[in-house]
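Run: sequence + S-adenosyl-L-homocysteine -> complex structure.
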Amino acid sequence: MNHPQPITMPIPGHIDPVPVPRDLKPRVDGRIDLLGLSRDDLRMALETAQLEPKQAKLRAKQLWHWIYNRGATDFTVMTDIAKDMRGWLDQRFVVSRPEVVEAQVSTDGTRKWLLRSDDGQDYEMVFIPDADRGTLCVSSQVGCTLNCRFCHTGTMKLVRNLTPGEIVGQVMLARDALGEWPSQPEGRMLTNIVMMGMGEPLYNFDNVRDALKLVMDGDGLALSKRRITLSTAGVVPMMARAGEEIGVNLAVSLHAITKDVRDEIVPLNRKYGIEELLQACADYPGANNARRITFEYVMLKDKNDRDEDALELVRLIRKYRLPAKVNLIPFNPWPGAPYECSDPDRVARFSDLIFKAGISAPVRTPRGRDIMAACGQLKSAAEKKSRAELDRMAAEKQAALG
Ligand code: SAH
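>> structure
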């Protein structure tokens, strides 16, 4: 995919950078999906459909507003566009939403959606309401290549990057479900976004960036970059670009402070080690005391939860002078997981040790456990079913043999 490069110096004779159209694949019905397109992409899509450039520019502006500010999915509601033009648009384009396969609500109010893409890939998103905020946990990939040993998504086989439309589509769908159109600055339920669903966002950098740009655009969904957090397992070479080109808050899945343990539970550590990762955090553009980096630390019984681990974590944060806070996540078990969660008093003691060193270390309350919506439990139903099918097949085979 090509993107217009930002021009930093004026080039005589060139007024505007010439945008390169994204390779837009029509859907099976021949129409092109406009969801996920930037203003420039929208304009190019209209021009490619033979709309005259001046018209294309005007229509793109109107469409963009209808799509991202008003949440429109139907051209007929776009009353400032002439009726025959609406018809023309409807023949060629759609504004889609991800297909909802299943929507579940937890006893604690957490909601989980299982979504399906046009090519039949399943992914999940979760909405976590709190008294003072509402956080949407967004997926960046179907499955994940990282294979963190404690993470359920890591056991999925199939991996593909989600497109910008599929990523921003999760936010649009949540807004639909919460009835939050048109986009308003006050009184929203959906206030925060965390890129902590399925997948590694920094392995899908371009699409995540393009989607988050749409989410942050003040005329559209208008979520502030201060209310968006991108979580990475530590893809060191992409961290500086994330800070420069996206500029959202950074969370890092640290989870261990020795090479041995981190190599085991976050295998990416064999490629980018702890010290390298912490240096990249120290260099992260925009991190300061007002905007701290969050270190996520999953509490695994007898694996990473000793007093020494907490103290070493403090030492490392100090060594790299990191404006940091620590988020302790009680391990959320899933069927067949090779670990157990640390005991509550161990977690409390671990948190205390870090607090005593002057670093905030709250324990994250698990949410939506009853609907398998808690951190690291996301895994598509299709996969779960095929697993169940496999088990059934195995049982049948056993019965036949026995
Ligand atoms: N790939 C990114 C974002 C997705 S995971 C990353 O690794 O940060 C979001 C967070 O959930 C990560 O901190 C991850 O380590 C954590 N997590 C995964 N499985 C978990 C589980 N079973 N229990 C608790 N936290 C888990």
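>> summary
Residues 4-19 have pLDDT under 50 and may be disordered. Residues 148, 150-152, 196, 200, 231-233, 253, 296, 298, 329, 331-332, 375-376 surround S-adenosyl-L-homocysteine (CB under 6 Å).
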